[in-house]
Amino acid sequence: MSDTAADPRLLRAPPKRGIRLSWADERFRSIIWQILVVGLVAGVIWWLVRNTAHNLEVRRIATGWGFLSREAGLPVAESLIPYSPTDTYARALLVGVLNTLKIAVVGVVVATILGTLIGIARLSRNWLLSRIAAAYIEVVRDLPLLLQLLFWYAILQGLPSPRQSLNPATGVFLSNRGLKLPWIQWQDAHSFALLGLVLGILGAFFYARSARAKQMADGQPRKVWPVALGLVLGLPLAIWAAYGAPWQGDIPALRGFNFQGGLTVTPEYFALLIGLVMYTAAFIAEIVRAGILSVPKGQWEAAEALGLQRGRIMRMIVLPQALRVIVPPMTSQYLNLTKNSSLAVAIGYQDIVSISNTTLNQTGQAIEGIAIIMVVYLTISLSISLFMNWYNARIALVER
User: Fold this and answer.
1) For residue 1, what pLDDT is reported?
2) What is the 3-state secondary structure (H, E, C) of the chain?
3) Residue 110: is it exposed, middle or buried by C-beta count within 10 angstroms (0-12/13-18/19+)?
4) Dihedral of the alpha carbons of 221, 225, 230, 235, in degrees to the nearest 10
5) What is the CA radius of gyration of the chain?
6) Is 220:139 a contact under the CB 8 Å cutoff?
7) 164 exposed, middle or buried (CB, 10 Å; 0-12, 13-18, 19+)?
8) CA–CA distance from 295 to each of 117, 287, 320, 379, 388 (Å)?
9) In the predicted model, is pLDDT for residue 199 greater than 80?
10) Burial track 38-47 (b if 16+ CB lie within 10 A, e otherwise)
């Protein structure tokens, strides 16, 4: 490095150049084009709104959101919250949103697990396992999703009646009325215990981060598992005991022509879940396979040289690196699964699309009904994208 001092004039920031009101100025042209584009979009929106309002007025179609407070008279087969046909349209639509979230959340979790296992099996050294995984991927991806949903719904409808139901395990029954599983008699104490579990998981996560930061500062390791165990298990159990939650389970039993008690998974929900999970898992499997293959082969060889088993190498070395390739396209599959759930109307599962369609047929509020569907799916999609982008930024490599 030269010992000659740098000229102070060279260290100064270049002076800011002002905008010249000339078409030759690039910044001036950029501003003009942006103004024109914004004006064009605003004009198109104004024309659409004005034209729609005029057509509605000519046809004497009422608009507004007042119908949400009217009695729905709409029967809903299953809901996560109490609902009856005497409730309002607003509550019926809320039931539809919750039903959509129920299929989306469970479907994303199960499809991720199944797709990851199939993607790893596709790379297995076992020839038969690898070919079975490959055949599954090719067949399922090439069949239309709607056809698969109808296929699974027909299979479930073809099961025997409750009296001749399949009983693969104690308290588990599979019939044309759906799947019956043992459950608990849910009370407020269970809700508080569940809330305690969520708070315990968050507390354990932040405590682990704090312990790791302190270890990096002073070099002293700290045991995390006792505190994490107390927060994740001890806190919910303490809340459970304090509120006197019952410990006995609710076992389904045949009473007359149907089962009583337990948890019911309806044929419509079961068929939709199976179809969405199996279809999405085939795409996730290929994403996982591509992510694993993106990890340099030298990582495998170095780990094997250390004597690590292949499963441990996959779990601790390869998959954490492959996640950086897997997460971005995985986000698209999560969005696809959520939006594909709108096909539920074909098999009678009442999600937001089904209930909104029934609502607009009864009230004639077509624009409002379509707007509700758009807002719901837009909100869910943006939420998934924001979370996955945050997670992708967390696992991204940071250059030093």
Assistant:
1) 45
2) CCCCCCCHHHHCCCCCCCCCCCCCCHHHHHHHHHHHHHHHHHHHHHHHHHHHHHHHHHCCCCCCCHHHHCECCCCCCCCCCCCCCCCEHHHHHHHHHHHHHHHHHHHHHHHHHHHHHHHHHHCCCCHHHHHHHHHHHHHHHHCCHHHHHHHHHHHHHCCCCHHHCEEEECCEEEECCEEEECEECCCHHHHHHHHHHHHHHHHHHHHHHHHHHHHHHHCCCCCCHHHHHHHHHHHHHHHHHHCCCCCCEECCEEECCEEECCEEECHHHHHHHHHHHHHHHHHHHHHHHHHHHCCCHHHHHHHHHCCCCHHHHHHHHHHHHHHHHHHHHHHHHHHHHHHHHHHHHHHCCCCHHHHHHHHHHHHCCHHHHHHHHHHHHHHHHHHHHHHHHHHHHHHCCCCC
3) middle
4) 110
5) 29
6) no
7) exposed
8) 18, 13, 10, 35, 21
9) yes
10) eeeeeeeeee
Q: How far is CA 191 from CA 194, 239, 351, in A?
A: 5, 10, 24
Q: Are 99 and 105 in contact (CB under 8 A)?
A: no
- pTM listed for this prediction: 0.79
> How many other C-beta atoms are found inside a 10 Å radius of the C-beta of residue 282?
24
In the numeric block, the tokens 């395990």 are attached to: 169
Report residue 2 as tokens: 């030269």
Least confident piece of the model among 26-30, 104-108, 368-372? 26-30
pLDDT tens-digit readout, 336-357: 999 999 999 999 899 999 999 9
Distance CA 52, CA 32 (A): 30
Class of the domain covering 65-164+263-400:
mainly alpha
- What are the structural domain ranges in the chain? 65-164+263-400
| Strand arrangement of the beta sheet that strand 263-265 belongs to | 166-169, 172-175, 178-181, 263-265
The three-point CA angle 299-304-309 to 5° equals 115
Residue 7: pLDDT band (50, 70, 90) is: low
Among all chains, which residue has been given the structure tokens 């000519």? 58
